[in-house]
Design brief:
- By secondary structure, the protein is of the alpha/beta class.
- The protein is 33% helix and 19% strand.
- It has a nine-stranded mixed β-sheet, with helices on both faces. The protein has a six-stranded parallel β-sheet with strand order 14-13-12-15-16-17. A two-stranded antiparallel sheet has the order 8-9.
- The chain is globular.
- The chain binds adenosine-5'-diphosphate and alpha-D-glucopyranose.
- Adenosine-5'-diphosphate (ADP) binds next to helix 1, strand 12, strand 13, helix 9 and helix 10.
- The site of adenosine-5'-diphosphate (ADP) has 18 residues, from helix 1, strand 12, strand 13, helix 9 and helix 10.
Length: 460
């Protein structure tokens, strides 16, 4: 079975958020299972391939030249890079000042149109699109193959001027949205299956409160909308072999975590004592709710808890976190940046991992944390509901859940979590329980494979 899998991000080549890891993780697991996956992404420039072939795609004039480079990449294996005018940039979406490129909609309309041309040329058995960047591909296809579209984050929709409806293709009426052009709506209407990246998110996005304006079209899809939880790359996220940890550890021999904790405390400037050490690894955006922790920082001493945040993004929030780290240095530390190596130590050395998300389609970091024995403290949203049952109310619980997205409820959950990890024997049992869980892509990839197969069957 040949699947053309189109994505704007792909680890380790272009990583902004979890989409990159999800695309790479699912792609490689499907390949391991015998699916012939053509990973297709924009050519952002500077990406080296070996055994490369190059060809032009037939696209309308408004797209400009669309060139394909197809070959092997050292990190991902077989890879197809699509170049369209304006695509090759330092960052996929953002200018150096952190604002989006003003022509982002246009760039990705071009890319999506080129993907449609590639589908016409290669005739894959299944087309798999991801998020708004690729959504408009279905606008231009008269006879698309069976198509799946995954929603990684409904908050981003790439809405553009209504005049795009005149150019994007014969199905453009499905992309009309209150007079504008929405690259996601058409894909949600036209795809054979719509996949939300967790079961709970699949139900949330059908509500007015959490549907980002698209709840009705999503409800209209009925059984064609399903939730499939993401996995994580359990080779990369493996405390037994992780080269970024000073000492490796495992579920059966967790002792090495003590040395990781000491290294982390030293790295962020904390005393290494009995006080629970919590971490956060995140993008600094509204979604992630880090601002909800701000009023709690002066209270950490009373919990007691130490908290270290690794994050990058919003400049105003970063400045606030730097100030708080200066004024509350004993209990709060902030490392600004996107630092993959340090992120491994933040999971490996932590007693607790805090995720105060306002919404969370799936979330990979809570799974990474649990794999490293860091007990998650989360809000009851999206994939966090599916992955973190509360340990105080559920005998098989794995973490501590704030039922409402607010500083007060988070503080209450942080208190409960701090108490739990200071009871050494219970804490070890909890850590061992979470470290035993299989968060790999094996089961999710199986679900996708079955979905592809059933779509092909109904087609013939
Ligand atoms: P989102 O995609 O919404 O940002 P996810 O939890 O799905 O959230 O995925 C985020 C991914 O990016 C995880 O693999 C996480 O470890 C990584 N990550 C996020 N922020 C940082 C950071 N500041 N430094 C290093 N890695 C980060
Ligand atoms: C998005 C979501 C995140 C999800 C990731 C991968 O970036 O914010 O929750 O885990 O996509 O699907």
């Amino acid at each position: 079975m040949r699947v053309l899998f189109a994505t704007a991000e792909l680890s380790p080549i272009a990583t902004v958020g979890g989409l990159a890891a999800a695309a790479a993780g699912l792609g490689s697991e499907l390949r391991r299972g015998g699916v012939d996956v053509d990973l297709v992404m924009p050519d952002y420039g500077g990406i080296a391939l070996v055994d490369e072939v190059t060809f032009e795609l037939e696209v309308p004039d408004w797209v400009g030249a669309a060139t394909v480079r197809r070959g092997r990449h050292s990190g991902v294996g077989a890879l197809t890079l699509v170049s369209v005018p304006g695509m090759a940039r330092e960052h996929p979406y953002l200018q150096p000042d952190g604002e989006g490129w003003p022509d982002n909609s246009e760039r990705f309309f071009r890319f999506a149109r080129a993907v449609a041309a590639l589908v016409e040329r290669d005739e894959p058995d299944v087309l798999h699109l991801n998020d708004w960047h690729t959504g408009a591909a279905l606008a231009a296809l008269e006879n698309p193959p069976p198509t799946v579209v995954s929603i990684h984050n409904l908050a981003y929709q790439g809405v553009a001027d209504g005049s795009w409806l005149d150019v994007i293709g014969l199905n453009s009426r499905h992309y009309e949205w209150w007079g504008d052009t929405n690259p996601l709506t058409g894909a949600l209407a036209l795809a054979d299956r719509v996949v939300a990246v967790s079961p709970h998110y699949a139900t949330e996005i059908q509500t007015v409160e959490d549907g980002f304006g698209l709840d009705r079209p999503l409800r209209d899809r009925g059984d064609a909308l399903v939730g499939i939880l993401n996995g994580i790359d359990t080779d990369v996220w493996n405390p037994e072999t992780d080269p970024h940890l000073p000492v490796n550890f495992s579920r059966d021999d967790i002792a090495g975590k003590v040395a990781c904790r000491a290294a982390l405390a030293q790295r962020v400037g904390f005393d290494d004592d009995e006080i629970p050490l919590a971490t956060v690894v995140t993008r600094l955006t509204e979604q992630k709710g880090i601002d909800l922790l701000v009023p709690l920082i002066p209270l950490l001493e009373q919990v007691p808890m130490r908290l270290a945040v690794l994050g990058s993004g919003d400049a105003v929030l970063s400045a606030r976190l730097h100030d708080l780290a200066d004024s509350h240095a004993e209990h709060f530390a902030f490392v600004e940046g996107y630092d993959e190596a340090l992120s491994h130590l933040m999971f490996g050395g932590a007693d607790l991992f805090v995720m105060p998300s306002r919404f969370e389609p799936c979330g990979l970091t809570q799974m990474q944390a649990m794999r490293y024995g860091a007990v998650p403290v989360v809000t009851a949203v999206g994939g966090l509901v599916d992955t973190v049952p509360d340990a105080d109310t559920n005998p098989r619980g794995l973490g501590f859940v704030a039922d409402s997205v607010s500083p007060e409820y988070l503080l209450a959950a942080m208190f409960r979590a701090a108490r739990a990890v200071t009871k050494k024997r219970n804490a070890t049992a909890l850590r061992r329980r979470m470290m035993a869980i299989d968060w790999s892509w094996t089961k999710p990839a199986e679900r996708y494979r079955e979905m592809y197969a059933s779509l092909r069957e109904t087609e013939t």
